[in-house]
Write a structure and sequence with these properties.
By secondary structure, this protein is mainly α. About 80% of the residues lie in helices and about 0% in strands. Strands 1-2 form a two-stranded antiparallel sheet. α3 packs antiparallel against α12 and α4 runs antiparallel to α5. Bound molecules: tryptophan.
Length: about 425
């Protein structure tokens, strides 16, 4: 459940539906499913194997599984760096979400009515202002830290077991509301009817990138979670379950969002624009209390999704520091949270007051976004899969996947082929095309 919580995040709710519609609906979905199960899930299994076999966090995991070639531990370090940058950006957007949740509950969003310009202005004004986003990201970061400080079982596990079912219930409520609005079918056809002409090469690459991001693979987080998985669990079934839930929630988010958007005669927008500019309009069109209730539900849902993902990122970072500095969990968590709040504040301020803070012509926010989406995860995933398929002793891999010979891993030959050839090749193609174009 905790790993599902990690996988299900902002990526499922505001990123997936939009790119799915943009790149040909059903056609994209088909390619996405192949990548999610064919590559994303395989990478997840590899990370689980590395974590459970070594029972360490990424850096030490790599070192301990190939004692004679210690250099591989830098792949683990790359994972940690990736987590660090992703979490800083994640905190900023989670802070926005939390702030919108308050605006929804207090009725502030509702007072803007069905005025797209006013809502858009509010978002720009808010996200570029200095204090409010920083205050909310700090509150959100502290909330995440409290869960981590309660421990893996009493914190992460307990919170995930409660919040994930709540998330599903909220999502289903939104789906029902959305599907019963007049004209809902246009939204469904935008999302599902296959249009292969819109599925360009770019769309195929976007599908792979999204599948990896959505499953939280390629940054060592699943190595850390893998190290907590009991010896008797079947890693194949676990990964299958996580992947299926993640895909299902992404699709349900689309069903909750697009019929409602089209029914109000609005156009879907990408990324932050969808959740913070288009949707408030949709809720306001429902009028009065209904609109307030549904917008509160939506932003609560998004906050929960963001929280369980942030938890896994913070856990990976804090567990790494515990292992490296041999500090107590309390100390390491505080150090990481303080550093993240500082970095996230810079990221947030670079949207407004500090927009002159630029790296290579990008604002700092866009720079971190590029690092997180284009550079770091594919590199780290590539290193991980090379290590897993070519360096780690094959006997260990088999032993871990079969639980010391208890399970029959009939899928193994296909799995081996994917990790040795297909996944590395796909990652190289994605990486090269994204930096060259
Ligand atoms: N999977 C998360 C989402 O869909 C985002 C994410 C990417 C993530 N990498 C991660 C979350 C690592 C936790 C850990 O939004």
């Amino acid at each position: 459940m905790a790993a599902v919580g990690s996988a299900v995040g902002l990526g499922n709710i505001w990123r997936f539906p939009y790119i799915c519609g943009k790149y040909g609906g059903g056609a994209f979905l088909l390619v996405y499913l192949c990548f999610a199960f064919g590559i994303g899930m395989v990478l997840m299994m590899s990370e689980f194997v590395i974590g459970r076999r070594s029972r360490h966090t990424p850096m030490r995991a790599f070192a301990s599984l190939s004692p004679r070639r210690k250099g591989w531990r830098y792949i683990g370090l790359l994972g940690i760096v990736t987590c660090f940058f992703i979490l800083s950006q994640y905190f900023v957007i989670s802070g926005w979400t939390l702030s919108y949740f308050f605006d929804a509950v207090t009725g502030r969003l509702a007072t803007m009515g069905q005025d797209a310009a006013a809502i858009g202005c509010y978002f720009t004004e808010f996200s570029t202002s200095a204090s409010r986003p920083v205050v909310f990201l700090t509150v959100f970061a502290l909330l995440t830290a409290v869960v981590i400080l309660c421990g893996v079982q009493k914190g992460i596990e307990a919170v995930s077991k409660v919040l994930m079912p709540v998330l599903v219930v909220l999502l289903v409520v939104l789906c029902i509301r959305s599907l019963t609005l007049p004209g809902a079918s246009r939204g469904l056809s935008y999302l599902f009817s296959p249009d292969f002409s819109k599925l360009s090469a770019e769309g195929v690459l976007a599908a792979l990138g999204q599948a990896m991001f959505s499953l939280s693979v390629g940054m060592g987080v699943m190595i850390v979670y893998g190290s907590y998985i009991p010896a008797s669990d079947d890693l194949f079934r676990t990964s299958m379950w996580i992947t299926a839930s993640d895909v299902l929630i992404a699709v349900l988010s689309g069903v909750a969002i697009f019929p409602a958007v089209f029914s109000c005669g609005l156009e879907p927008a990408g990324g932050p624009g969808l959740s913070y500019c288009v949707l408030p309009n949709v809720f306001n069109s429902m009028g009065g209390v209904t609109g307030v209730v549904f917008s509160a539900i939506f932003f609560l849902l998004l906050s929960i999704a963001a929280l369980t993902s942030s938890i896994s990122l913070l856990e990976a970072l804090s567990a790494w520091l515990v292992e490296t500095l041999r500090t107590r969990r309390f100390v390491s968590t505080l150090i990481i949270v303080a550093a993240e709040i500082a970095l996230a504040s810079i990221v947030s301020l670079s949207n407004g007051m500090w927009s002159h803070l630029q790296v290579g012509g990008d604002t700092f926010f866009d720079f971190v976004d590029r690092l997180n989406s284009i550079y770091l995860p594919p590199l780290c995933a590539f290193g991980t899969v090379l290590f897993f398929a070519w360096v780690m002793p094959e006997a260990d891999v088999r032993d871990e996947l079969t639980n010391h010979g208890v399970l029959r891993a009939v899928y193994y030959p296909v799995f081996r082929f994917i990790v040795r050839w297909l996944a590395p090749l796909a990652l190289v193609v994605v990486f090269l095309t994204s930096i060259l174009t």
